[in-house]
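Assemble and predict.
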Amino acid sequence: MTATTAEHHDHHDDHHHAPHGLKRWLFSTNHKDIGTLYLWFSFAMFLVGGLLALVIRAELMYPGLQVVDPEFFNQMTTVHGLVMVFGAIMPAFVGLANWMIPLMIGAPDMALPRMNNWSFWILPFAFSILIGSVLMSAFGAGHPSAPNFGWTFYAPLSTTYGPASTDLFILSVHMMGISSIMGAINVVVTVFNLRAPGMTLMKMPLFVWTWLITAFLLIAVMPVLAGAVTMMLTDRHFGTDFFNAAGGGDPVLFQHVFWFFGHPEVYIMILPSFGIVSSIIPVFARKPLFGYASMVYATASIALLSFVVWAHHMFTVGMPLAGTLFFMYMTMLISVPTGVKVFNWIATMWRGSLTFELPMKWALAFVILFTCGGLSGLMLAITPADFQYHDTYFVVAHFHYVLVSGAVFSIMAAAYYWLPKWSGVMPNKILGEVHFWFSLLSVNLLFFPMHFVGLAGMPRRYADYALQFTDYNFWISIGAFWFGASQLIFLAVAVLCCMKKGEKAPMNPWNAPEEDLEWTVPSPAPFHTFDTPPVIK
Amino acid sequence: MADSSNKYYVPESSPWPLSGSIGLFMIALGAGNFIQQSTDFGQDVLKHQGTGAGWLLLAGALWLIATLFFWWRDTIKESISGLHEGRLSGSYRQGMVWFIFSEVMFFSAFFGAMFYARWLIVPWLAGEGNNAMTHELLWPNFQAYWPLTTTPDGRTTQAMGAWGLPAINTAILLVSSLTLTIAHHSLIAGERGKLIIFQGITVVLGIIFLCLQVEEYIHAYQHMGLTLNSGIYGSLFFLLTGFHGMHVTMGTVMLLIMFLRILKGHFSKDNHFAYEAAAWYWHFVDVVWLFLYICVYWL
């Protein structure tokens, strides 16, 4: 080796404490710091997206128009969805991946640390464009409209009829896509290339497995989303006819391309949750995970099936019968691997020595409420039934059960589980209990009645509704404000941990089995871990 | 497997990722506004406000290129000082493979749109399946065939044939893949002269391909009436070949940089991953072209 190498190595050995100041965060190549950035960014976006949702719920609290005009209401539903999907849930999972995957597989860092930082820093810029359009719409001169076509941005609403901000929205989606693809490539390469000696694929923690498969989905479908928005852009400005029947195109083509991305995207937002819950339940049941191998195969099956079910979002567009039947049966097939997972979680707890610390509470709530969301998904998969449910609040109830009481709850479980490792401080128990119980009660008050108003025919994405839905909507809005306020408690919990206020966390506060490598390093995890890989037996 | 003497190289903190994000931000803001200022679009209030955003777009592009230049200068220094041994080299290799996979999926969105248009949209508009009334009520004179040279609303164009320029271009790309492989083998065999010659030939072939592609576009616009505006066939033709052309441009730039780095003596027979990555990328654009040639020009 050359002299430069030796110099570098010496320098590295001195480098065990973190760099200081702003540069530490702006120029980071450290998976833990970048993970922290991702997690705080996603929480900020969660609050922003939540505020937009509260505008929606304020308007819908009573029938008639009180708070905003319908045009602005449409912008709220659109940007709420986009911010929550691309800004809150996805970056939260990437943050968890950044923090935990190297710790779980005994790697010194992510495989491509600089690209890792690029993946993160694209996001604040991309979202400043999207959120900027909302601020301009709310406060700007002339009130130009923010994107207002729903988070699925169907053509021709987003092409022929899209506001001027659509073009900037398209480019911000491109940026989010670049960020996601680079982040996902980093995860895949880290998992394949940086596992500690002896960490065979079938010894990896399930969080790592589920993220590996998620990353594969991301690399496969984010470019398809890029293709969809590119076709939108050229249809809007360069005279192409992809989504225009008069030129031989078809608006329905947009839906096909979008949902070819969109359905795998749904699993991108839930597979890491499965990994989190599969990590937590065995620890608090004091039993090894039931059916590890079947969990891996089930995850892979779900991912593969996710590529052939997309048109169940489009049963009402008038597809040929054979296509409809194909997508219906494929969708129902997904309930098999998902059922395997739920069964395995329950079997893990069976005759376990259960305790109910905060992470376990969130994980259990996840299992129950996610299953509710899954079952309403099965109802929606039945084509003739879907003809009735399509674009009603029943759909809204379904995907909020899987995304809020599913994905978000699992992220909360992960935060309470790993905060001791991240911060070196136990999350405040009293605040945590209040946060959990408030969230659990309010999330059901918020989303459960949506099933009923939806089945009774209340359509989604409208600023007003028929009078018979008044009582339900009032209580839904109460639930929404309660749920929103409850999340501020978590802000307090997280800030307290960051300020190191609270009970000091031991190395392994939850008595996790020693195979879980993340609990074999001190709390808080030092700046560099596993410089020398551990050997797994 | 690595032992403690072979630590995985984790680079020092670097300003380039943040700088690259700023570049992308400028590009997005610049491009979004520039497109609105310079094209026709509905109720456009932004039109005729000058092209200031075009300068922002240009500045963003230059900024990003400069950032990548400095970023890669750092990586090249690390590579030459021997830090890219072992597993890090594996990370770069796997990263490139997955990047190319993402590119494949990008093209598959457009290929998917093409097959959907050919096999479903156009026949349906002509009344196939249960669409007889759609046909009757919307465009009763519309006939289904591919390439679609008459749109439902009556715009006409000519279809691009497979012979002539496109066939020549196919031959050029195939030969360029061959010359690149010869260059690669020369690099491994340590035959510097042969490497320089064949790498140079590959770059020139790439440039010739691009020139012919431009010539084909001019011909399409001026003599065939085939434009972005001539319906779904024109849309697909120009976006598929256009994105392919952009990738060939990228690939040619990569190969050119590899040519310059060969002249500077950066590569050895064991340490030339950047060269391999550029070669993989070139073979990828070659394969995409074969699909394009068969599905868009020929069939």
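Residues 270-524 of chain A form a domain with the Cytochrome C Oxidase; Chain A fold (CATH 1.20.210.10).
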